[in-house]
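ZP: hey, is the 6-phosphogluconic acid complex queued? I don't see it on the tracker
AM: it wasn't, my bad. submitting now with these inputs:
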Amino acid sequence: MSGPSASLEVADSPAELAELAARSAARAIGAAVDSHGDATWVLAGGGTPLAAYELLATRLKDTVPWARLRVLMGDERLVPVDHPESNWGQATRALLGRVPIPPEGLLRPPVELPGPDAAAAYERALRALPATRAGWPRLDVVWLGMGEDGHCLSLFPGRPEVELTDRLVVDVHDTPKPPPDRLSLTLPALRGGGCCAILAAGAGKAEMVARALAGDESLPVTRAAREITQAGGTLTWLLDRAAAPSD
Ligand code: 6PG
């Protein structure tokens, strides 16, 4: 599970998972604002978090100090924001376009740039964030998804980007999961993570969840969990019953 500061919470359904995740993020954002006066939330891409985003835009809207929040994407597909596969576009429709985050708090990945330039620009944005005592960008709340192959962010098993230590953002190409061209935070970027969650739902994720919880370091998601906890962040596996270990 990756150390003492990791825990696991199992919801009985995807709807309950959304509620659990949304309320957890609201609490963590509020705590960060109380401590620092502001908060940075790294959003997860993919489909799993969308129901939680929707809840935070509606029934739970008043639980978050939106005016003090910055958001960025942990990874993004290099497609236009209005493309159906855009993580930022999906998050905007579900949440970002429906809550009063100040424009300067919307750290959209610059997908209009060529991959290497987009990665360099997003890295600059991360390095401009308030830093932890260890000097990493302070990412108060981090949500990560996990693929059925154990990928996390857009870091895929066996790919060289997983091993990068000299940068916070990388452009990734020819990915196994389409679209093939992406931006991703690297594993070291997670060392500034505060209250972090890996969200996984559905039976298709169960095998990789079990392998990650057993410490299988061939999986980028296992490595991500370890980066967070070894740097002092807290990590919660937020799972539905179908993705959770049976025992
Ligand atoms: C992406 C994601 C990716 C995602 C997982 C899970 O851009 O594809 O960021 O890492 O989180 O693939 O995706 P689902 O939530 O759709 O299963």
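AM: back. The chain has a mean pLDDT of 97.
ZP: great, adding it to the tracker
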